[in-house]
Design goal:
Elements (H helix, E strand, L loop, with lengths): L10 H6 L4 H9 L6 E9 H8 L4 H10 L2 E4 L6 E9 H23 L10 E8 H8 L4 H10 L2 E4 L9 E8 L1 H17 L18 E4 L2 E6 L2 E9 L4 H6 L4 E2 L11 E2 L1
Antiparallel strand pairs: 1-3, 1-4, 2-3, 4-6, 5-6, 7-8, 8-9, 10-11
Helix pairs in contact: 2-8, 4-5, 5-8, 7-8
């Protein structure tokens, strides 16, 4: 609908309403920029288990105390996506809780270790590839600035994650350095929105090896071969004998134990 009774503002005046980079950084750092952001993290199963906690108590506490929505992707995958959504101050609180939880895990693991140096906390963000150029900056100037001002190590993967248009951004350091680093990355993401459609990265389920013996399929789980009820394929005996995998004999031994034959 056209403006009535007032002149339409010029493009220049519209841009002047936008906060400068320094003003935006200050508002983001102080939690005064009330915008909703979504940050995606890529975690290994052990890391996910740590933030979920016993009966989901840890992630429940993180949600309640930060005010952010924290969702964890489903599936039997070695990697999971953790999505954090909310106002900037809620996101920073959630990141702080995750970073300090990981530092606690590292401290606990070192109590039974002979290692003398404490490894840094490491988080992996998943960022649309179209925003990575702004994060790196001309000649690497922006990422260098972030490293120097926060003390965190930041690495942007050169290749996109499989079947997606996203890249992994790895942040390492102390929890405080990581939080400051995430704040600056959020400023870059607000200043430079994604261009075009983003195909999100979705981790694939872990593939379980299947072997056949005596017409029965077995899946390998650790050191054990478990009968697979959903697969049935007769396999000629000569094929079994030439297989590079240890096979389970079709006939168990008299003591009821499985007999492995090469």
């Amino acid at each position: 609908m056209p403006f009535s009774g007032a002149a339409r503002p010029s493009q220049e005046s519209l841009w002047s309403l936008r906060p400068s980079s320094r003003e935006m950084e200050s508002k983001v750092s102080e939690g005064g920029l009330n915008v909703t952001l979504t940050i995606r993290l890529l975690m290994h199963g052990k890391e996910v288990g740590s933030i979920i906690g016993k009966k989901g108590e840890t992630v429940k506490k993180m949600r309640e105390e930060s005010g952010a929505r924290i969702n964890i992707s489903e599936g039997n995958c070695p990697e999971r996506i953790v999505t954090i959504t909310g106002p900037t101050d809620a996101i920073f609180k959630a990141f702080a809780m995750i970073a300090y939880k990981f530092e606690e895990d590292i401290t606990n693991s070192m109590s039974n270790s002979t290692a003398t140096s404490k490894p840094p906390v490491t988080l992996r963000l998943v960022v649309p590839a179209s925003q990575c150029g702004s994060l790196i900056g001309k000649g690497g100037s922006k990422i260098k600035e972030i490293r120097e001002s926060t003390g965190a190590q930041v690495q942007v993967a050169g290749d996109m994650l499989p079947n997606s248009t996203e890249r992994a951004v790895t942040i390492s350091g102390t929890p405080d350095a990581i939080i400051q680093c995430v704040k600056q990355i959020c400023v870059v993401m607000l200043e430079s929105p994604p261009k075009g459609a983003t195909i999100p990265y979705r981790p694939k389920p872990a593939s379980t090896p299947v072997i056949f013996a005596g017409g029965q399929a077995y899946t390998i789980q650790g050191q054990y071969a478990i009968p697979h009820p959903d697969v049935w394929m007769p396999v000629p005996r000569p094929v079994l004998m030439n297989s590079p995998f240890p096979m389970i004999s079709a006939d168990p031994d008299p003591h009821g134990r499985n007999t492995f034959t090469a």
